[in-house]
Structures are given as structure tokens and as C-alpha cells.
Design brief:
- The protein has about 120 residues and is mostly helical.
- The chain has helices at about 15-20, 50-60, 75-80, 85-95; strands spanning about 70, 100, 110.
- Strands 1-3-2 form a 3-stranded antiparallel beta sheet.
- Helix 2 crosses helix 4.
- It is globular and about 25 Å long.
Amino acid sequence: AVVSTQSTGQPKPGSVLAATASSGFTGPPSSNGAAINGGSADANSLPGLTPTQNKVFNALKQCSPENQTGLSLRDIQKDLPLSMNEIRSAIDFLSNEGHIFSTVDDEHYKLTDHC
């Protein structure tokens, strides 16, 4: 879409960009995910995930691609200082977003694309 600007270089009043600028929105977070992940992005973080979701994702990443069963929720809980509710919530999100899938039952998961 083409957005008209006035001679000041500012978005035309009433345009989508003008409404966005006046709302205080400053654009997407940096590509390293720091703004999304509470300011602590690292090489193992996926942009757009919470720290808890990243911990669960990284635990599943440790599973060998040859392992057909994947990791159980109990295995994940043994490795992470998280409650089962936190793990299930992260699993639900990661599954709904297509990052992971269930294998033999609703208690075992693998990454969709082993990184």
C-alpha cells in the first residue's frame, strides 16, 4: 500500500501509519528476540517465545532425531525447574504454533524440524 506523506515526511493525518505513530508503537522488537524474551536473548532463544517456552523448546531440541518416541513431559520436568502446568502450557503453545508434535501419546513430543 502507498502511504501519502506531507512535506514534513510524517504520515498523512488519519492514515494507518499516523494512528500507529500516535499509539506509541515503535515497530517490531529487535531480531534477536530480546524485547520478546524479557531482555535475555541468547543463541538458543527463538524470537517470539517466552523464556518458559524457550526452555521447553530447548529441552526438546536435545532429543536425538533418531528417537522416534520423543521426550515425555516427565523427562522435561526432571530437567527443568518448572511446574507441570507451566510445561503443559508451553507444550500447548509450541504445538499450536507448529514447532513440536505429539508422538506416541499426549505425553511425548518432538520438534517438527530438528535444528
